[in-house]
């Protein structure tokens, strides 16, 4: 392949001019935070949006799951998660070698009868 042919192929691929505009209103902090993340991975916001649009077309839908508020942990669950990550609490937590042992610790040695 000659240099001219290589240039011509690249020129053809890059000939897809970006002529459409997308205007979106987002919270300023969200925009700033997102652009920091994108910059850290070397991606421009417009390129990220193009990637998102391409994935929407490829997957024929949103390229991620959309969850409702019911999937957000409630206050009790958040407290339990914080407690589970607390190094002081971890030292006092019981551990189990397997599921059977765990159920015995929680429900007692005759746990299967209670089912």
What is the global morphology?
A: elongated
Percentage of residues in strands: under 5%
- Number of DSSP-assigned strands: 0
Determine the number of helices (DSSP H or I, runs of at least 4 residues): 6
- Quaternary: single chain
Provide the succession of SSEs. Answer: HHHHHH
Task: Provide the number of structural domains.
Answer: 2
**Overall pLDDT, averaged?**
83
Q: What gyration radius follows from the Cα positions, in whole Å? A: 26 Å
N- to C-terminal distance: 73 Å
Major sheet details: none
Structural class category: mainly alpha
Unreliable runs: 1-15
Helix content: 55-70%
What does this 3D model show about the protein?
By secondary structure, the protein is mostly helical. It has helices at about 5-15, 30-40, 45-60, 75-85, 85-90, 100-105. The radius of gyration is 26 Å and the shape is elongated.
What is the secondary structure topology, with strand pairs?
Elements: H1 3-13, H2 28-40, H3 45-59, H4 75-85, H5 87-92, H6 99-107
Give a brief rundown of this model.
With 115 residues, this protein is mainly alpha-helical. It has six helices and no strands. The protein is elongated.
């Amino acid at each position: 392949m000659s240099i001219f042919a290589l240039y011509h192929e690249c020129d053809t691929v890059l000939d897809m001019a970006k002529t459409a505009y997308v205007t979106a209103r987002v919270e300023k902090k969200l925009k700033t935070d997102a652009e920091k993340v994108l910059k850290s991975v070397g991606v421009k916001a417009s390129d990220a949006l193009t990637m998102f649009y391409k994935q929407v077309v490829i997957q024929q839908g949103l390229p991620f799951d959309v969850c409702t508020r019911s999937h957000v942990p409630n206050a009790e669950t958040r407290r339990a998660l914080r407690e589970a990550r607390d190094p002081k609490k971890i030292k006092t937590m019981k551990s189990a070698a397997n599921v059977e042992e765990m159920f015995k610790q929680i429900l007692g040695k005759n746990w299967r009868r209670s089912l």
